[in-house]
Amino acid sequence: FALDYGLVAAPVRPETAVRLRCPCGIVTAFVPWDGSRSGNPVRFHSVPAFVAATDLAIDVPGHGKVVVDIGYGGTFYAFLSAEQLGLDVCSSKTRDLVKAASAVTEAVKKQFKLHHPESEDLAFLYGTILTDGKDAFSEEPTTNICVFADEQVDRSPTGSGVTARIALQYHKGLIQLNQTRTFRSSTTGSLFTGKAVQATKFGDYNAVVVEVSGEAFYTGTATFTVEEEDPLKHGFFFK
User: What PANTHER family has UniProt attached to this entry (predicted)?
Assistant: First the structure.
């Protein structure tokens, strides 16, 4: 049921902790368990999330100067309201949002150097998240679209994206610790909640641990086999 560094752990009631080794570090997920199957909502605690830049002026070809924030939630994202690009995150065509977000990503990569406290391999911009601009605390959901990697679009509000956006809102004093916000995906309407649960330090950055919660469902299973004669059964390292 649960994988912890590759070891199977027995589930426990009412909730099972699952520690996942991700490229950004250890992420702990918490899965409800009733004795026979898992349930919802599932939540996770992030690696330390922090703000790399706020109110950064970027010249975006075809759009002129825009102002972005850059946050880290396991990877780096640029954040700005779709309105700055002449779009509406809730009603504009997805292809137009993707094209504009991708232009922002490329512009930020050229005009701003990122730094990660522990690994320069993680010091790259993964994508741009366009929002509805509703960053101040509200009980109402705020909508965003995450365009990442090779112009891919997330079906959800994005776990690492919600983490980074909570870190930004906390940094700006728009939310407090343990104040929950709801985030909606503009593509599917799916919802995540997020809250900063702990203030911490990460290198020179003031950071927070963020709890993200949402629904999760089984989509498949896999069986992995290790044969004794396999010379690489324990893995390998590159020098």
Answer: TRANS-3-HYDROXY-L-PROLINE DEHYDRATASE (PTHR33442)
